[in-house]
Amino acid sequence: MKGSAVALLVVLAIMAPNGASAQLRALQPVGPSPQQFTPQSAPRQISPGSSLVPPADIPNVPSTPAALPPVIQSAPPQPVPLPPAQAAPAAPAVPAVPAGQVALMVGARFSRDLPQLITNGLYWRVYRAKPESNGSFHPIKEDKTATPTFVLPPGDYIVHVTLGLASAVKTVQLRSDTVRELFDLPAGGLRLEGKVGDVRIPPGQISFDVYQGSQFEAGDRRPIGQGVVTGDVVMLPEGTYYIVSNYGDGNAVIRSDIRVQVGKLTDVTVNHRAAVITLKLVSERGGEALANTAWSVLTPGGDVIKESIGAFPRVILAEGDYRAIARNEGALFQRDFKVIAGVDGEVEVIAR
Question: Which residues contact 218 (CB under 8 A, 6 or more apart)?
Answer without folding.
Answer: none
